[in-house]
Design the sequence.
């Protein structure tokens, strides 16, 4: 009997702990995703600018040949 009462008392604490832990994990994952997205956006913008420069150089070279 005493074991059952101890187990019944520990289950609500476990559930409450998980109830508090899960939202913090979700928020942490969201911050990590936002940070990663910002880095990717910055990298893609840099690559796009480099591609525009290369295309402009090729077009300038092609217009000079004509």
Sequence:
């Amino acid at each position: 009997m005493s074991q059952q009462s101890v187990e019944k008392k520990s289950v609500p604490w476990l559930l409450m702990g998980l109830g508090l832990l899960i939202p913090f994990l979700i928020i942490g994952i969201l911050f990590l995703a936002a940070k990663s997205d910002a880095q990717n956006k910055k990298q893609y913008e840099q690559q796009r600018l480099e591609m525009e420069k290369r295309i402009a150089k090729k077009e300038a070279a092609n217009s000079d040949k004509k």
Q: What stands out?
A: Residues 22 and 28 are 10 Å apart (CA to CA). The two ends are 96 Å apart (CA to CA). The chain has a mean pLDDT of 88. The first helix runs from residue 2 to 65.
